[in-house]
Amino acid sequence: MNFAFLRNSLRMRLLAGTLFWITVSILVAGWGLGKLFHRHVQAQFEAELRNHLDQLTAHLVLDDQNQGQLRLPPSDPRFNKPLSGLYWQIERTAGVSAHPAKIILRSRSLWDETLVVPADTPADGEIHQHRINGPQGVVQRVVERAVTVDAQSLRLIVAANESLMTEPVADFEGYLWLALGILGIGLTFAASMQVFVGLAPLRSMQDALGRVRHGDARNMEGTFPNEIMPLVNELNSVLAQNADVVERARTQAGNLAHALKTPLSVLANAANAPGKQDDELARLVASQIEAVRRQVDYHLTRAQAAAAVQVPGMRTAVEPVIQGLVRVMRRVHADRPLEFVVLPDGANLAFRGEKQDLQEMLGNLVDNASKWGRSRIEIRVKAVSGKLHVVIDDDGKGIAESERDNVLKRGVRLDEQTPGTGLGLAITADLARMYGGDLVLAKSSLGGTQASLTLPLV
Amino acid sequence: MRILVVEDEPTLAAQLAEGMRSAGYVVDVAHNGVDGHFMGEEEAYDAVVLDIGLPQMDGMTVLRKWRGAGHGLPVLILTARDTWREKVAGIDAGADDYLTKPFHMEELLARLRALIRRAGGHASTELVCGPLTLDTRSSRVMVDGTVLTLTSHEYRVLAYLMHHQGQIISRAELTEHIYAQDFDRDSNTVEVFIARLRKKVPPGLIETVRGLGYRLNKAQ
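Above: the input entities. Below: the structure tokens describing the complete assembly.
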């Protein structure tokens, strides 16, 4: 038999254990109670029979012809009702006449039947019991006693249908098992409820973890029972530690950038100082500084993003990030007639990932669009088949189809006059791929470039 | 035009000051945030180049304090952390532009020119006032296409007036914008510069508003 389902489910384990003990307890209780009741009923039944026998004995007298007579009939009316199930009979066994025994008296209830009791000779004062087939083949419980009156041996017999005893017992057992059955069902239901209610916190813990994985929450929220709260706290501290690691990586990367770039600025300015532009060494320094800067930018951004992609529970609303970038662009390009239009379709969408990474990707794209656009930049956020799409259009001169792949490569710039590192698009494409997304450049309906960024959606 | 440079790295600060001076600006340098903040509050500058990573008080705090106190002077922030988070934070704190280290001096100067122009409400790189044309890129002033020969102080006075043409500029204001902080100022020298300029530009262009100062006559 396969008990795999027990290993796999805590609920099934608890339920199976409880059900086993409920079943055993009910069977034992039913069997024990039945036995007890049976013994009680039997004892009563036999006591009643003996009672009748005593009455019979007490009322027995011999008349003038030495025949047995009853001074008073037995009091129970059933003795007078034909085939009522309660009988008595008096036989003469030995002494005067020979065997077979002669029936001298019997109850009216016997009608024209007789009780055929196996030959037996109880000692004086003893009561013997028998089980016989009585009138109409009905099983009878029989008590008998031997009495000697004037040298006559008499046998006094009282019999009753066994069913008078077994029927209440069967009745009782029927009700007993019915009651126990209902009890069993009730207990099973209660046990299931207990398991369900008892394990409910596990279910809500699972939900809380699910929310973290889906990026709806940074850590597991809610209160849990004392037994699993430590587990939840541990999980939360692991999550917090994860976020800490990312934050530290970012800070360190930022510090490194700061430490490197100020000296680089000094070098670059020295190399570009008036009168130095024609100097061979100065030109070499200037070109190498540019190379160092690109490398630093590129690898720092990648390192930061690589750390963040691993962390679950990230969720960044897209709209505020775009608004922040548009504020920057409006300010920086205040002297140009640029119109920024954020189309309101996907106002509530969120990106499954780090805010800073989204800022980097969108910042580079919006920055490019602002540099090249003439008068209008359109930014559209939408959800398409479970993915987040950010589409940025400009009305600049656009990028020739043959150049589109080229600009996504590291450090390639199409125009050396417009300031920039030439890394923006490459970094954006790299970041998008790290998140399992994509960056595609196309011709915009506005006339310039359309950049479509695909990213995981929360 | 008077510029405040707040930069803690001494060599870079010196290079910045040198580059701007040779472009015709008057430059004051502060080496930490507290000094920078104080100078920005107390002195009249036409623009500020503000490094973000500063000792004692970081650039972002300096900027927020200025904006909080209602100072609208144009600020260009220099940042070493080339992240958009920082750029957005800088702009939201009140910066007008940003530049990432390392940068080219020419680019910094171009951004600075644009900031000062924008602050004066001018869209073009060339400012025009009657027959006068100021090319902010080359720091030259032309009268009907002929380049004027000006000393650096004369240029500063004329450039300031052209950036604020039509407004009355007091002698004290002119003095503040043409001399560095540690210079021994004498507002009488302004009169000398104005007198010399009047000989070089078409007559009637520079008006004296008695008791108040000077005005560049736009209608001319």
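Note for the figure: The CA atoms of residues 134 and 141 of chain B lie 5 Å apart.
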